[in-house]
Amino acid sequence: MRRVFTLIGIALIWSFMVVEAQKAAGLRLFTAYPARTIPSGETVSLPLTVRNVGLAPQIVRLEVQDLPEGWKATFLGGGQAVQSVYVDTDESVNVNLKLEPPKDLAPGVYRLAVRARSPEGRLQAELLLELTVAEKQPAKLTLEVELPTLRGTSASSFRYRATVKNESDQELLVNLDIEAPEGWRATSRVGFGTEEVTSFPLKAGESKNLDIELRPPKQIAAGEYPTTLRALAGEAQAMVALKSVIIGQPELSVTGIEGRLSGQVYVGQENVLKVIVKNQGSAPARSVELSAFEPSGWKVEFDPKVIAEIAPEQEVEVTAKIKPSERAIVGDYMLTVTARTEGISESAQFRLSVQTSTLWGIVGIALIAVALGVVGLAVARFGRR
Amino acid sequence: MARERREGSPWRGLWVVVAKEMADHLTSARMRFLEFLMILIAVGTVYMAIQNLRAESERFLFLKLLTTAQEPVPAFVGFLGFLVPLIAMALGFDAINGEFNRRTLPRILAQPIYRDALLLGKFLAGLFTLALVVGAVWLLIVGMGIFRLGLPPEGEEVARSLWFLLVTIAFGGVWLALSLVFSVIFRAPATAALASISLWLFFTAFWGIIAGMLAQALSPVRFGFPQEILAQANLELNLARLSPNTLYAEAVIALLQPEVRALNPILPIQLHQAILGTPLPLDQSLLLIWPQVTGLIAATILLFALSYVLFQRQEIRA
Question: Which of the residues A81, A230, A347, B212 has an alpha carbon 20 to 30 A from that of A25?
């Protein structure tokens, strides 16, 4: 009985060994991730391993079966396209399978098989691959502005901070389009750069800060001015509305008639100089006060002294009555005329030439006439016959 | 003394006298010396001035020709200030007494020429001769200026330098009339010449000092107020203006330096906000010096009137 058990035991071990040997010997072909999702339209590379288990060294041919239509498959070994590999006993060789799907690949699951076999076809190994092509995510941009409404005067510049974000899974080339009111100047900068940028690449999931600057034209009426900021990338676009509110402001200018800033004045007389005050701003200037910085001893009076109101783009003529000092010397003097309203003041410098009156010239000629008269008298009195 | 009316114009024969006297002046040896001196000074000073002016290019270059001095040579106007009186005195110091001494005066007056015409003719001849010399020198200077500077003078420069010429002649007229007075008073020409020269020296060298002393005495600065100092300065200036040299110098400065705006002392307050360095227009410069110009002309006429009266009262039959 004991013998029988021993026999059975031996038989079992042997059979087990045979099974083991049968199970172990042969070709293997495998990859770490046989089912995977690939990005659409892109070339994929899959690492494959061919292993010879317990067989004599041999050459193994590789081929792809059930390749979907339009796909291209290449085996790469050592950087070259290969068709077969040589595998030593109990060794393995790594091969890359390069798959080039067609450009317009429909989403779905694609299956294909890779087969490795010895030349006689006696031994073979098969690997099933399952590739899932995901639905392509549409390009998507978002655009946000921190403070979309700003206020300022016609002299200020309006700066908006915006953020553009690429919410798709691919890099996008973003074009900026600023639709500003007519006459406005718009500049866009990216990040903290100083260059003006209108288009820039944006990686998937990334966001960038934009600095949009709007400058109104000098001559602009008070009011609200809308601007549309657009970010475009292919079919994706994002839009945001900006608003610039111009607050009206008076702006004064002082000049003479026909822009002349010079005049002639006579000592001891009241001289009249016409001064033109113009409002070049966008709001009426109220109670404009005129004053002068005159050479010492001079008297300058304005008529009217205060202008009640100057509408935008209107001008008012003011008469300045100038009385130079009695001791002013002939030649040029500087007179500064200042117009002031609500915190704004504007001045102009007039060059006044002091002239002497010709009265003294006549006195001098009279003196010569008297001297000639003396000669005449002498001739009459002392003339000899 | 019963007076009778004269027959005909007292100035008959005037131009004959002028022509003869000028011919005498222009051919005389003393004029040769003076002309030579004048030309030497003109060429010398203007040449030096051009050397100085070369570098700068600004307005009124031609006027600067006359006023620019380079050590050791003074400016042309500086020379004129004493050369013109000398020429004038040289032309007039023996006008009447020379005729006396040559005993030619009765002979001339035997002609149908009044004493009036003789005296005025001698004066005008001297003045014209002076004008001729000064005018020739002026042309010489302008010509040298154009030649060396390579540009023509501006209209205003010509106008100003012509007025300068006129003022120079009027200044010479004063000294000519003065020497005429002395030539009537003194019989000896040497005495007359010395009298003129000493008076000229008095005005040139001493009058300025005397004016300063007089001003200190008449308007003393007691407390050091600015008004007192100003009053004294003004008095000194006005006293100095009794000298024809001062009048001439002021007139020349204002004419040849258009930037000059005043000849009297100026308080800083008068210059408040004044734009300095800008030239005055010619008419304003002329108005500035008009008292000086008319003063010189009137002085000339009055001195001539004096010589006339003295001459008419003189006994000439010797």
Answer: A81
What number of residues does chain B have? 318
Give the domain ranges of chain A: 26-133, 141-246, 252-355
Measured between alpha carbons, how far is A135 from A231 in angstroms, rounded to an integer?
Answer: 25
Kindly state the greatest CA–CA separation across chain A.
204
In a domain, B317, yes or no: no
- The answer to whether the Cβ–Cβ distance between B305 and A355 falls below 8 Å is no
Model-level pTM? 0.66
| pLDDT, mean of residues B159-181 | 95
Q: How far is B297 from chain A (nearest CA, A)?
A: 7
| A325, A327, A329 member nearest B261 (Cβ) | A329
Cβ-based interface (< 8 Å): residues of B facing A: 4, 6-7, 10, 114-116, 261-262, 266-267, 269-275, 278, 280, 284, 286-288, 290-291, 293-295, 297-298, 301-302, 304-305, 308-309, 312-313
Q: Which two tokens stand for residue B226?
A: 């600015």
Identify whether B303 is part of a domain: yes
Residue B266 counted as domain residue: yes
Q: For the domain covering A26-133, report its CATH number.
A: 2.60.40.10
Write out the CATH class of domain A141-246.
mainly beta
Q: Which residue on chain A is closest to B270 by alpha carbon?
A: A328
Domains A26-133 and A141-246 share a fold: yes
pLDDT in tens, chain A (385 residues): 667 777 776 766 666 555 555 556 788 888 888 888 877 767 888 888 888 888 888 888 888 888 888 888 888 888 888 888 888 888 888 888 888 888 777 788 888 888 888 877 777 888 888 888 877 667 788 888 888 888 888 788 889 999 988 887 778 888 888 988 888 988 888 877 788 888 888 888 888 888 899 998 877 878 889 989 888 887 788 888 899 888 878 888 899 888 888 888 988 888 999 999 998 877 888 889 999 998 888 999 998 899 988 888 888 999 999 999 888 888 889 999 999 887 788 899 999 998 887 777 788 889 889 999 998 888 888 876 5
* Residue B209 CB partners (closer than 8 Å, separation 6+): none
Number of structural domains chain B divides into: 1
Residue numbers of the domain that contains B159:
14-312
**In this complex, do A295 and B266 lie within 8 Å of one another by their Cβ atoms?**
no
What are B234-264's pLDDT values in tens digits? 999 999 999 999 999 999 999 998 888 888 8
Tell me how far apart the alpha carbons of residues A173 and A200 are, in angstroms, rounded to a whole number: 6
Q: How far apart are CA A128 and CA A115, in angstroms?
A: 9
CATH class assigned to A252-355? mainly beta
Q: Does ipTM surpass 0.85 in this model?
A: no
What strands lie across the sheet with A84-87, from one edge to the other? Answer: A35-38, A124-133, A108-117, A58-65, A84-87
**Mutation test of the interface with chain B: which of A265, A347, A360, A379, choosing the one with the most B Cβ atoms within 10 A?**
A379
Q: Is B50 part of any domain?
A: yes
Spatial separation of the C-alpha atoms in residues A241 and A222, rounded to whole Å: 19
Compute the radius of gyration of chain A from its Cα atoms.
50
Q: Phi-psi region for residue A171, left (φ > 0), alpha (ψ -120 to 50) or beta?
A: beta
Contacts of A240 (CB under 8 A, 6+ apart): A143, A144, A145, A148, A162, A228, A229
* pLDDT of B178 over the 50 cut: yes
pLDDT at B2: 42
Query: Helix %, strand %, coil % for chain B, to 5?
Result: 75, 0, 25
Q: Is A335's CB within 8 Å of B284's CB?
A: no
